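Fold tokens
===========
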Amino acid sequence: MGFQIYDSQLRASSALLASVELLSNRERLIPNYKCGIHYHPVAVIVAPDSYVCVTVAPILALYKIPQLIYGSASVLNNKVQGAFIHQMFPDETHQYMGILYLLQYFNWTWIGVLYCDNENGERFVQNMLPILSKSGICFDYIQCFHKPDFLSEIENQMKEAIQRYQIAMDSSASVLVIHSDSHILPILRMMVEFLIGEDVPVKTKGKIWIFTTQMDFTEFNFQRFWDFSLLHGIISFAVHSNEVQGFQGFLQTRNPTTEKEGGFLRSFWENAFSCSFSHSPVYGKKTCTGEEKLESLPSSVLEMSMTSHSYSIYNAVFAVVYALQSIYSSQSKKRAIVKGENHEISNQLPLQFHHFLRYVSFNNSAGEWISFDQNGALIAGFDIINWLAFPNNSFMRVKVGTVDPIAPADNALTISKDDIMWPSSYNQVCPLSLCNDNCPSGFSKRKKEGEPFCCYDCIPCPEDMISNETDMDACFECPEGQYPNNGQHGCIPKYIVFLSYDEPLGVTLAILSLSFALLTALVLGIFIKYQDTAIVKANNRCLSYVLLTSLMLLFSGALLLMGQPHNLACFFRQCVLGFIFTVALSCVLAKAITVVLAFNATKPGSKMRKWMRKPLVNSIVFSCSYIQAIICVISLVTFPSFPDFDIHSMAKEIVLYCSEGPFFLHYSGYGMVGALAVLGFIVAFFARKLPDVFNEAKCITFSMLAFCSVWTSFIPIYMSTKGKYLVAVQVSFIVASSATLLICLFSPKIYIILLKPELNKKQSLWRTRT
């Protein structure tokens, strides 16, 4: 196949002129005048530059000439013109997703975007940026590069481009995604050289540039010996390519001195080797011999391996060949013979060529299957390329990954992180590109007002919550039965606790309870020994025996609250202590009433003498105890207490305790105890001034006052205490309240019995009364 090459010279006018020349007689350029044209183009391979596509498409569409674009095609409003475009490029959405996968893989959430002011750039901004935003990528800036016009106003346009470039370089974002045509790279290099010449600090080595597939390496001839460090560490996307066997050998055998390979190759040879084939000497240039070695050229002048764009052109040529072959095969038996001459296939191509080209598929010489989808886009993936720059003004492209559009999203990106060479300023450490540092585990994010959602503050999790990943939006609670560790980034199982006899607090309370129980037993023994004395007989010694026995049971029963709860212990806890308290306080109340009745009954004509009998005292104790017993039975029958777990009240512990049943039943028993204490205090208070050596009213009044004070202080302490210490508080107050009754009521009597026996006589009682 023959071919013609036209240079657009980075100008739409040159691209338009080239399209007209392609369809006209070389000697006589007259649009739409085809007489004398010997070569009819069957297809045109168009560069991916946006201005070329938009300019060439309307002209070539008039002649129904297919255009194979080895880049993402521009959007054409005219559907007729767009129908003749065939893309040697995959669906551009796959490239968008590949960029997203790459950013997510390295956790680059804070980026900048540079794009060219053309149709491709606008489409990139409209389609790509929403995808990134929805996936958690933020933009520090989005800058548009205007393509400089090299014929007019270049100085103003370059200043504007430099201003945007400096914004990008001064940004806190380490990653720049650049979408443009292939001409942007020489312009970027030109701006860097200009800034260096103006002594302006240039920050290029601290940025990771990500090029889209549309971009490729090009340079102006005067840039040949410029610094290449700008390219080091660049990551670019490229349409998947493969090494074509024999390609380098083919290049090495090219000879520009032969007539067959003259023209374009000769012009390239002169520019590449800075020589001339002219017989007349050219100033500053040596004479070309044709024996120069292409492999000796730096990669900036010629890359000996087939690049992605070259591979796309290679496949485009073969697509045309296979389409022509299909047409030729289908028409070989149907050729019309007109005046003994065959019609040229090319004269019939516009009617059939598009159909065959759209559905062509073949294996190329690299062993890869080439085909197109229903939209005419190439079915292929993308390669991820890492650019390496060397001090000898050469560079190399290294394939470090791929994007497979057919694979699931989790496996679409394949990349070798260790093979990537980062810019030298990163010391081969994977760079970060974040608006702020990641929030570590144990912290959560809080958005900064007026800034993008990628910018946030890190706040510690509350005490009872954790975050076990970086950059969590909110902390969360541990599962039941677990609590946060010290760093609040994990959960630890809670351990079961109860007030044990083995710990110091339990031992102390147990010794205290047993000591008072023994002391009470000692007092009871003294009372039994001196039961016939006046002070023991006074105020009903049977009540004293019952009261002392109740106090002794209270001191001993406090031990039921300690130790590991079990069914039997919970059963006794629920009612026994409340019942014993009721018996003890009813005895105190009966003693107070006995004192009042005793002194009032001694008055002449008093009608209270008939109440001074034992049945009255017994009925008081029995009736109070009976009411408390009914409450206990109801509680046991309806809501029996059982061992239970409290996993919420303590942060790090599961408290083993006995369930208390409904609030009303549980506190009605304690209400009975409180009512008896208050009533006993009131009765004793009014009898406190009655004259008698053995008057217990003062002792009862003081003991009830102390008892009520203990229980009044007990309530707020009990309500504010949690865990096993709640049991310790209960034991302490049982012991304390019982001890007040024991000490206040019986210590004066023991003092008289043991130390003042002369007062323990009936005569002393009568003397005092008279």
Summary: The mean pLDDT is 82. The chain has four domains: 12-89+307-370, 92-240+380-426, 443-492, 504-769. The chain is about 45% helix and 15% strand.
